[in-house]
Design brief:
By secondary structure, this protein is mainly α. Helices cover 36% and strands 8% of the residues. It is elongated.
């Protein structure tokens, strides 16, 4: 008739706790990036690149050389152009 209830039993399985930890870490990173932007630091989180073929698909790609990546976030007037995806990733990770 009654289910046995153990108050010491963990109500959340480990996978749920892992997801909670992951979401908390993502929220901390989002807050850090938001504070950087609010202080005028461009985080280069939005970019547009030109493929190696040089084929232009978007207006923003005009003026780029093949494999270059241009920042399109424009925080504090940022117009950075990176020579490769790796250079763009390194700039974002250095913040």
């Amino acid at each position: 008739m009654y289910e046995e209830f153990d108050p010491w039993e963990d109500p959340d399985p480990p996978l749920i706790r892992d997801a909670d930890i992951e979401m908390a870490e993502a929220a901390v990173e989002a807050d850090r990036l938001h504070n950087l932007r609010r202080n005028g630091v461009c985080t280069h989180s939005s970019a547009c690149g030109l493929p190696a073929s040089g084929e232009i698909f978007y207006f923003e790609q005009i003026g780029l050389k093949p494999e270059q990546v241009a920042c399109r976030e424009h925080t504090n007037g940022c117009n950075a152009v990176f020579d490769s995806n790796e250079a763009w990733d390194n700039a974002r990770l250095a913040l």
